């Protein structure tokens, strides 16, 4: 009887407090596992996506470095790889570029010399950029202009763009060059700019050219047009007909002043890598142009110019008051100018 009672009691409690079904627990665990799995997968996908974007971004930013050029160690500061903002150098991006500046004085043959350089496939000389006063108003505007030029972003008819191997300008000594010489020398040093000095030995012939050019600015002898340089013998003959009168009283002083300016420029820029040329030497010996190409480290080419000389022949036929000039210079260190021909 007692055993039956105990058995009844056990059955009673089993009925009142049944165990939860294993199927329910399995479903709960399964749902929880699925939620965790989805969450973990979403995190992984985000990380993969971020990593992929980062790798793509890195690939876009990293550029293939240019191979080291086969040059002497001293040349390294003078070799550059500009990255223009206005266009891509494309396949020429790894072609090294040299920076230069032609330092000269008006009517010293610099225009003719520059046309010779621009006849070279790989040389771009961009003219008298600083003839515009606002560009040389202070050292900041000068540096800004030079940076644009040497970055190959200066647009002119001389620009060779992609495959330029040497880029520069023609800079007259009276165009802010001597006024800001200390800062410009430092700029040339830090940016690796080389200087090409071009002067004229016969300062009397230069003076004739200066005076004749000044006269033609007003007279405009060529069909009402002023031309500093000509491309035909006919035009040259018309301009050469004018014979200037030289102030013999101020002649010695003026020649000395030009000489001093030239010497001052050579002294100021003596620490700059440079070459000194004279117009007369180039006229007589075209091999001098090979020296220039070697200086700029460009392939040697035969260089030609369409410009025609205006004043040539005996000086006695080019100066109105020849006898006064001759008398003034005889017995001075400038006497040789009377006889020398270009």
TrEMBL record:
Transmembrane regions listed in the UniProt entry: 23-45
Keywords carried by this UniProt record: Membrane, Transmembrane, Transmembrane helix
Top-level division of the source organism's lineage: Eukaryota
Gene3D superfamilies in UniProt: P-loop containing nucleotide triphosphate hydrolases (3.40.50.300)
InterPro entries hit by this protein: Nod_factor_sulfotransferase (IPR052796), P-loop_NTPase (IPR027417)
Transmembrane helix keyword on record: yes
KW Transmembrane helix (keyword) present: yes
Name of the molecule in the record: Sulfotransferase
Originating organism: Quillaja saponaria (Soap bark tree)
